[in-house]
Records
---
Amino acid sequence: RKEVEQDPGPFNVPEGATVAFNCTYSNSASQSFFWYRQDCRKEPKLLMSVYSSGNEDGRFTAQLNRASQYISLLIRDSKLSDSATYLCVVDYTGGFKTIFGAGTRLFVKA
Amino acid sequence: NAGVTQTPKFQVLKTGQSMTLQCAQDMNHNSMYWYRQDPGMGLRLIYYSASEGTTDKGEVPNGYNVSRLNKREFSLRLESAAPSQTSVYFCASTEGQNYGYTFGSGTRLTVV
């Protein structure tokens, strides 16, 4: 079993749709959680950290469920520019054991 | 505001050749990392440097060496390239836990 698992997709949604991604992790000792966005042939860029109480940044909402060991990312009112791969990242100890999921591909269509 | 700068952006090597990938950050970060990314797989850690003067192996260190030249620079060397090292290589740095990484733009390496 992979340490961090994501549905590879692709998710194909129309503009304006709400889309949710889930990510599960296997090690309960995980400490920090992040979502990154990666555009085609570009570097990953930090989208948002994920806090235990859940957090929101504009159209993006991240949730953490430690009991079930999963994190989620919700994108509301999808834009064409949201088309990218979304990487789930779990950090165990101070950044020296950071596991990246393989990513979920999102296509937003007009 | 450069962030993390990697060179070169593209490289084609013949099997057995050597090369060094360069990385520099201007954010005064202590920790720096080298990752490789292959299709269908998450980024995998090759080596990292928690602070100037220290380096440690990551998940896939075989065939690579690193040098933390100073606080800004962290280089990755392939001594004898193999086709299995065809990949996209990313350098990253971080201010610390809970801050996430800043990545360079990547090096696309093909070994033939």
Note: The longest strand of chain A covers residues 84-91.
---
Amino acid sequence: DTEVTQTPKHLVMGMTNKKSLKCEQHMGHRAMYWYKQKAKKPPELMFVYSYEKLSINESVPSRFSPECPNSSLLNLHLHALQPEDSALYLCASSQEAGGSQPQHFGDGTRLSIL
Amino acid sequence: QKEVEQNSGPLSVPEGAIASLNCTYSDRGSQSFFWYRQYSGKSPELIMFIYSNGDKEDGRFTAQLNKASQYVSLLIRDSQPSDSATYLCAVNTSTGNQFYFGTGTSLTVIP
């Protein structure tokens, strides 16, 4: 069982819908991440939060809006997505931000855009 | 030049053999190196991490790091069919801000 919990596991939405992905960790980690992964590709970093502040935004379109309400929670708000946004969305956490610490991944949310 | 390179495979080994997975990286300042296993349709699972030159062993897994040659490898001894997965190498940047993932090597262990 993963210590990073993501909900929902699957999401199908239309291009005009608004939905949110949720991520929760209780390991006391101070850094949380959103990644996007397409089939047969490595995870692609979207956002990094460090101590609840956004520290990296990898030029992600504004239709993706991250939010970190507290140190244990991370949300990704979705609006007006495109079919090419269909992918596995992964949340991860690490003790501190940056690449020196192992990142632990949740099970992901498989998103399909109709 | 990609920051992290892996042979995409597929790599096939018979059950019980040693599987050797390799990864090279371009940022000479990188200090932290990670191996993840990802089963089809699942999320990446941390297998090992290594920070110092040399070998690090954990059960059937050994990570090897050579910073002078800028490569890191993962050896899987006594390979099992359950080891069949994609193995992702991840390396931190010299600024320490994030990982770079390799494209992954697909491993198949043949019973």
Note: The first strand of chain B starts at residue 4 and ends at 6.
